[in-house]
Amino acid sequence: MATLLYRLGRTAFRHRARFLAGWLLLLALTAGGLIAAGPHLDSEATIPGAESQRGIDVLEHALPAATGVTAQLVFAAPPGATVDDPVHRARIGAAVREASAAPQVAEATDPFETGAVSADRRTALAQVLYPIKRDVLDDSSVTALEDIAAEARAGGLRAEVGGSVYSTAGMHAGIGEGLGVAVAVAVLVLTFGSLLAAGLTLLTAITGLAIGLLGVLLASNVATVSSTAPSLALMIGLAVGIDYALFVGSRHRAQLATGMAAEESAARAAATAGTAVVFAGLTVVIALAGLAVVGIPFLTVMGLAAALTVLMAVAAAITLLPALLGLAGERLRPAPGSRAAARPGGTGGGGLRWARLVTRRPLVTIPVVLLALAAMALPALRLDLAMPDNGTADPASTQRKAYDLISDAFGPGSNGRLLVLVRARDGDPVRAATAVAAGLHLPGVVSVGDPEPGTDGRTAVLGLVPAQGPRSEATRRLVRDIRSRTPGLGAAAGAEVLVTGSTPAAIDVSDRLKGSLPPFTALVVGLSLLLLLLVFRSVVVPVKAAAGFLLSAGAAFGAVVAVFQDGLLAGLFGVATTGPVFSFMPIVVIAVLFGLAMDYQVFLVSRIREEYVRTGLPRDAVLTGARHSGRVITAAALIMLSVFAGFVTTDDLTLKPIALGLAAGILADAFLVRMTLVPAVLALAGKGAWWLPSWLDRLLPRLDVEGAAVRPREPRTEEAEEPVAP
Description:
By secondary structure, the chain is of the alpha+beta class. It has 24 helices and eleven strands.
């Protein structure tokens, strides 16, 4: 691997014009393709094999109107009045007629004709039906409804718009994300001590990210890509892109400071740091692609989209950056007497002092770190998962106001209606549905509507209103209780009965994810053990790395629970509503954090192992490895932390908890686990940290992550021979 990357780096340096032209061509092709075809993002999440999904599939043929996107126009009379007042009733009627004629609307129901008026006669609810999916609904159509509501408000009514027309925010970049990038740039400049070096690093990262994102959006024309997938890909691709370029660029600048020729330095940086980048990047890609094992296409696409941007980040770091280094030439060499020249690559100083501190008394350091991580992870024991809905939106938004009005006037369960689909084997489906409905009056059920026949002559649908809201545990139990009764009810009525709709679908997604989390975590941890065993040829190092990753993941979940469920610092992070966390958060955070944790593990421990193999002195190897990699790893962690923290400010409720979890996880993993716990454990274990049974040593293939194959053969300098003083 190191030899191949050495040749690739040298070739890119020598033929920089060709490599730069190739990257520009790839960028132009993806951009041109997207301009010609445009993106086609889809917010719909399917759950193959789930009962709710089977019901939705049947409804799409038997009763298409039940599966289209819907909106709600909620009207509330002013204090002391009712919606039955002639003036208010006339305004509501006019608003419903306007809604019926609005773009893409199939039907708008009159609340006075359908009986959708509250018991106190102060609130009326009109349903607006669209015969289409959310991904083909124009934003202007939603705006038209909001304008109708605004007219009703001008006439003295309180009017709001809700319903499934409001979905996730999708990809966007705002002030917070921009500030995160600004912090990353500042860290790069401080790390390199050079605007040019920082600029080349950022240019490499942005080029790879741009091509990856354009590729994801272009792929939406031939595959179903969710609106959240590009956002996740943007966040992860930006963070790893900057970090990977930083690792290669810092090694190059450090070697230039020792007097190495620019071409040789670029080639050797690609062979050493580049090999670690390839390994670290592949672990991220494998973890993200592993999301496919959950069996939810929405999640699979999110993982694959992010994996594509990571692949482009790796490719840019080992090909585009060496070409840019060739373009810069000698201008990147630190000036004699400068800080960068005195401490090549920004090494030494704080990293060495910290390593000495934490390894001086490892039996004290290790318990202290473990207690700190346990305290951070403690709130994770209360983790509650659910899919977001309008009840989690900003309280100032019209969809949240509509949600609250409906809950107050009609009960919280009116926002989480269940659909019970009855598919008769023979005979009248309405009669079968009526028989099934008689057995659905359970505790927690407010009402069961009359059967609505489908167009196929075999299907009828019952609308069921639960007592509690869609994200409550009571509603989850009710769905399970109903499903436990439906086989018997269906057999008695001669029909198949399926409980479906948006609320059961959200429950099915959460249940599927909860069930997949333990095996997926075991897969990720097992993969880390195998890969690190191959790389470091040690038993202790992989076990310690896997345990550290689990501790970091626990800390990440604890931070999310503290903010999103308990409300700790909720205002600071812009969390308007506390409650269950987005169901996809744990599994996505585990996948991404695993790969990023392995980044730091590889870049730190590979330098330690390199020194141990050379000197045979375990404690000196730990200190020297920290001296050479501590500052760069700290910079990389700060960059990732700033990027993820920037995305915490997004309004996308699917991305916000993921960003916070990753930021907290990086903070715990880089500074508590890799920079503190790892040196302490390795110092305590001594030579035992690098023990490997001889039979296993013979079986394992040898991976040259440290670049030994391209290491210079000339005699070592006196500085290189000098061990680090304790």
